[in-house]
Amino acid sequence: MPTDGSISALVAGLWLFNVILDTGGQLAFKAAAGDRAAGDGLARWKYMAARPWLWLGVGGYVIEFLVWIAFLSLIPLSEGVLLGSINIVAVMVAGRFLFGEKLTRLRVIGILLVTLGVAIVGLAA
Predict the structure, then answer these.
(1) pTM across the whole model
(2) What whole-number percentage of the chain has pLDDT above 90?
């Protein structure tokens, strides 16, 4: 039977892996959708389907789904969903650095509040 320490390490590892996979998937989808050469309508979808970014995103989400199920099997749903909300922060920050998306003052305040909430839930878990 695993000890509480090994379960905590497993939960933390699954949580971190989930954040990485979700953020990577979102960024891959943005890279696929944001390609200006894609065109419009059905041609856009055909163009995206022929590029690796779309499939990296899909693959990342499939793996993330499995990691998320494993994560939720170890902690209560109410904690898992709150801890999972840090993905929003990771995607916003990565979008800023990789795609030059704007972080307004209100978004930064939101990021800080979400991070604080996740930290509180994480410490209480």
Answers:
(1) 0.83
(2) 64
* Separation of alpha carbons 67 and 17, rounded Å: 7
Give the orientation angle of helix 52-72 with respect to helix 4-33, to 10 degrees.
Answer: 160
**Is 95 a residue whose pLDDT tops 60?**
yes
Q: CB neighbours of 51 closer than 8 A, spacing ≥ 6?
A: 32, 35
- DSSP alpha helix (H) spans, 34-125: 41-49, 52-72, 77-84, 86-99, 105-124
Question: Where are the chain's structural domains?
Answer: 4-124
Q: Would you put residue 18 in left (φ > 0), alpha (ψ -120 to 50) or beta? A: alpha
> Residue holding tokens 């856009």?
44
Whether residue 1 is predicted with pLDDT greater than 60 in this model: the reply is no
What amino acid occupies position 36?
Answer: R
